[in-house]
Amino acid sequence: MSGDESLIDELLAGEHRALARVITKIENRSPGHRELVSRLHDHTGRAQVVGITGSPGAGKSTLVDKMAATYRERGETVGVIAIDPSSPYTGGAVLGDRIRMASNVGDMDVFFRSMSARGSLGGLSTSTTDAVKALDAFGKDRIIVETVGAGQNEVDIVRMADTVAVLVPPGSGDDVQMLKAGILEIADVFVVNKADLDGADRTVKELREMVHMRDASPMAGHHGAGPSGIDDGEDGDEERQPPIVETVAKTGEGVDELLAVLADHAEWLEATGERDARARQRYADEIRTLLRADSAALVEEELEARGGLEEYVDAVVARETDPYSVADEILAPVAEAVRERREAREN
Q1: Whether residues 267 and 145 fall in one domain
Q2: How far is residue 148's CA from residue 56's CA, in Å, rounded to a whole number?
Q3: Residue pLDDT, tens place only, 278-314
Q4: Within a 10 A sphere around the Cβ of 45, how many other Cβ atoms?
Q5: How far apart, in whole angstroms, are the C-alpha atoms of residue 154 and residue 278?
Q6: β-pairing, 142-146 with 163-168?
Q7: What is the pLDDT of residues 55-65, one digit of tens each?
């Protein structure tokens, strides 16, 4: 039995050390990591995955800590993946040993892992997806993915979740305006954290108005309609409207209500078939992402075999050729091989 095979067997048997090693291989994109993830795939699909996003300072870290602690009180196991900004010195996660998970220190059934952004959130999205698969195959009941902020890259990362919670700090009209520009459509639940501060009531009101405006829009579809984009329930709109939960994470206030809302959403996903529809979309996106990355790697390999890009650039600058012709020439052997394989299949 190879080392990787025994590593997978240990992970599936519940060895946390094996889980940590597999996620390290995934994060580092070590040789063989793809085979590891491929072997895990058949053991996935059971965990509830929750994405937590929102602007910096919204209290995501504290809330995730309290959520994990509450799940553990109920006897459920938890995996947490926190996307952290990179250290400019080591490339590792600056907050890798976060004190903020203090509620769960020493509890092996809360597996916490920081993953470094390293300035490349596009590649990180694939790594995070694979790490979620490892936690799922391991048997974690709940998996929480927490992002750095609420930009488009972070949105791409949390799309892997069954349920997405967007945190909004109170009393900040700018944050609510920012939601209009980017992540309103992905929210399955809004959380106004630090609800004991001034401005919380106003923020809740603004969010309600935004949700109402979005559902009234002809572009609505993520919540107001079924997987096909067509409303398929008499009272479905009401059920699918993202609820707004108020929490005070530092005291734990509202956390039970939030977990109940997340559970309700999970039940709705199952009852309507939306969970399967979203899973299909995620797998389609994942396959496309891998195809793009692998195709780019093949092109780079061909380019390297031809001596690199500089000579081609010199020729373009000298008007001896043009960028389209260069691309056609470099891709020609790849395209030819693909066509030959396709013709062989058809014949």
Answers
A1: yes
A2: 7
A3: 999 999 999 998 999 899 999 999 899 999 999 999 9
A4: 11
A5: 18
A6: unpaired
A7: 777 889 999 99
Task: Provide the token pair at 87.
Answer: 């250290």
- 3-state SS of 312-338 is HHHHHHCCCCCHHHHHHHHHHHHHHHH
Tokens representing 45 are 């699909």
Residues 197 and 330 in one domain: no
The pair phi, psi for residue 240, each rounded to 5°, is -85, -10
- Residue 329 within a domain: yes
Angle at 331 (CA atoms; ends 325, 335), nearest 5 degrees: 125
Q: Which residue has the tokens 């889980």?
A: 19
Whole-angstrom Cα Rg for the chain:
23
- Whether residue 278 contacts residue 269, with contact meaning beta carbons closer than 8 Å, is answered with yes
Query: Looking at this protein, which amino acid is placed at residue 129?
Result: T
Q: Which residue has the tokens 């250290």?
A: 87
Would you state the structure tokens that stand for residue 135, as one six-digit string?
């936690």
Do 202 and 107 lie in one domain? The reply is yes
Angle at 239 (CA atoms; ends 237, 240), nearest 5 degrees: 65
Is the domain of 227 the same as that of 164? Answer: yes
Encoding tokens for residue 278?
Answer: 């979203």
Distance CA 8, CA 25 (A): 12
Pair (93, 210) in one structural domain: yes
Q: Answer yes or no: do 175 and 247 share one domain.
A: yes
The verdict on 240 and 310 lying in the same domain is no
Range of the domain at 76: 44-272
pTM of the model: 0.83
Residue 162 falls within a domain, yes or no?
A: yes
- Please give the biggest Cα pair distance in the chain: 71
Number of domains in the chain: 2
What's the confidence (pLDDT) of residue 64?
Answer: 95
